[in-house]
What we know:
Blueprint: H1 2-13, E1 17-18, E2 21-22, H2 23-54, H3 64-90, H4 107-142, H5 149-176, H6 182-188, H7 193-199, H8 201-216, E3 224-227, E4 230-237, E5 241-246, E6 251-255, H9 256-261, E7 264-266, E8 273-281, H10 287-303, E9 312-318, E10 323-331, H11 336-356
Antiparallel strand pairs: 1-2, 3-4, 3-7, 4-5, 5-6, 8-10, 9-10
Amino acid sequence: MFTNWENLLDSRVLQYEFLGNSIAEYLISAGILLFGFIFKTLLSRLLTGLMYRLGSKFWSEANLTSFRRLLIQPLEILLFLFFLYFAFQVLDYPVESKDLRDGDPFLKTFMFRTYQVFVIVALTWVVLRLVDFIAMVFSYRTEKTVSKLDDQLVPFFKDFGKVMVVIFAFLAMLGSVFGVNVTGLVAGLGVGGLAIAFAAKESLENLLASFTIFLDQPFTAGDLVQVGDLVGVVEKVGFRSTRIRTLEKSFVTMPNKLMIDKPLDNLTLRTFRRAKFDINLTYDTTSEQIRSITRDIQEYINNHPRTNDEGRIRFLSLGPHSKDVMVLYFVDTMDWNEFIDIKEEVNYKIVEIVEKYGAAFAFPTQTLYVQQTQQEEPYPNAIDQPPYGGGADLK
């Protein structure tokens, strides 16, 4: 009985045709897709392991886990697309629109071109992830060098490489999928090159500015710079712009052209940090007190282990509400936190010196002098005078 049932399935069910394909062909195609969906992760892990071992001499600084984390997802998609191709090779899908319904497009050509687009996109994704991994390897190597120039070049060439990969993939898509004559297209760009260059003028200027930054090296990644009113730490010099982390911890993207056009102060290259402020003493502070205060502060600044001998303490001006003493000194540190710690230490000492000599700090005040003058009364004998003056006596 079972033999007859199997024969029935073989002869009737599996050989039943729908849209030009038998049920058996549909089952084989579905089996290939199911196999690809289930085993794509395992195959991707095996493939990434093989690729890593082949290039292990070049990228020994990075481990297999990092390599897999970047490549396994795009490889899974690419492998599934290959299984999809083999699954559709089993089927004889319609080549004429009349086999489906009226008005449908030429299905076979449309599906094949769509498949080509997905394959090119997946391959491009794999190559972009390889570029990321190679850039990561070079960044590990640059961390071991003293120069900061290579730290800037790695992200720059990483972005440059990605742009070239995308352009190549786009041209490949135009040529293989849409049948465009890529050679003629590239040659035709010479005719419209002026228009394209004019439209991309700003981008080209920023690109040239990035090369200027790498050659002149006015700053490197990690430097504290001031560009106009913007102060922050350079985090990355990119293909078009420079990324700066401000002192408020916000993130600013500055076009490279502005970085070279505007006056730029590289604060990291300073040999010392300067501290400058005024001490406002009250006007009742005597000259002897001021001399003693300035002398002691000058002596303390000169003897401080973290300041140089260029400090100046001077009785500089007579302000509207105070006698002003200028304090100027330089701290031998580039670290901001250490600088403010030393500045706080100096400020405490200044307060102690001012208090030591009995002086006081001034604050904006105004002194109003009121002078009272003595005037004669207009009517010394007012009781004997008429209230309105000049009146006749009444009898």
